[in-house]
Specification:
InterPro entries: Usb1. It comes from Casuarius casuarius. Keywords: Hydrolase, Lyase, Nuclease, Nucleus. This protein is α+β, with helices and mostly antiparallel strands and 223 residues long. It has one domain: Cyclic Phosphodiesterase, Chain: A, CATH 3.90.1140.10. Helix content is 28%, strand content 30%. The chain has 6 helices and 12 strands. Strands 2, 4, 5, 11 and 12 form a 5-stranded antiparallel beta sheet that branches. Helix 1 runs antiparallel to helix 5 and helix 2 runs antiparallel to helix 3. The longest helix is centred in the middle third of the chain and has 17 residues. The two termini are 31 Å apart.
Length: 223
């Protein structure tokens, strides 16, 4: 199978640059749980981003949504299949479970325990708005523990200690925590709390784990 060809163009990524340079044979890889977007979630997202832009006009809504289970790492091409097979074996015994992601929180990429670890591109500083998991944290830690074991097999970085599991909603370049925390954060949380049926909307049953390596996607169904 042919290796992917990658040409970096920061203009296509909001001025961001790669966290690590592309080299032939190196495939950017991460493990995550995908969130399948529903129409009412898009409505809530629009409300949150629209309101947050009154404090930070440069915010950009995310296009895909997930919870990270690993850092972004680099795999050599010939490692991909054994890496995926090891993931498959370690994740095979996990059952489906529910999470509640209903706490609005501001993140930055300055502190490793708070950065959005699935992004392959980073600016010098970025700020995110996300929905933090308030129930289901233990199950996510169990998944991370198994993913970490796979990372260790391949001498790759493991996940961060004491992670804040979250679904990123929007991002902007620069440190805008001063604008988004405090009053803005309280108002965003109020929007979530008041949104019709938000408790049901943000209570998610996770049914699969995914791994993205370069332009390849691998799925691992939960039981």
């Amino acid at each position: 199978e042919q290796e992917e060809e990658v040409v970096d163009d920061s203009s296509k990524h909001g001025g961001r640059v790669r966290n690590f340079p592309h080299e032939r044979g190196n495939w950017a890889t991460y493990v995550y749980i995908p969130y399948e977007v529903r129409e009412d979630f898009v409505e809530l997202l629009d409300l949150l981003v629209s309101h947050a832009r009154t404090y930070a006009s440069s915010l950009t809504a995310m296009e895909e949504f997930h919870i990270s289970l690993s850092q972004s790492v680099v795999l050599r091409y010939h490692w991909i299949n054994p890496f995926v097979q090891s993931l498959k074996e370690r994740l095979a015994s996990f059952d489906r479970f529910f999470c509640l992601a209903d706490q609005v929180k501001v993140y930055t990429n300055q502190n490793k325990t708070r950065r959005d670890v699935c992004c392959l591109f980073l600016s010098l500083f970025r700020t995110f708005i996300g929905l933090e998991v308030s129930a289901g944290h233990f199950q996510l830690l169990e998944l991370v523990s198994e993913v970490d074991k796979v990372m260790q097999e391949f001498d790759l970085p493991t996940f961060y200690k004491d992670p804040s599991f979250h679904i990123s909603l929007a991002w902007c370049v620069g440190d805008l925590t001063g604008r988004l925390e405090g009053q803005c954060l309280r108002e965003l949380q109020d929007i979530v709390d008041r949104f019709e049926d938000s408790a049901h909307l943000l209570r998610v049953q996770w049914e699969q784990i995914r791994c993205k390596s370069g332009n390849k996607y691998f799925s691992f169904p939960l039981r």
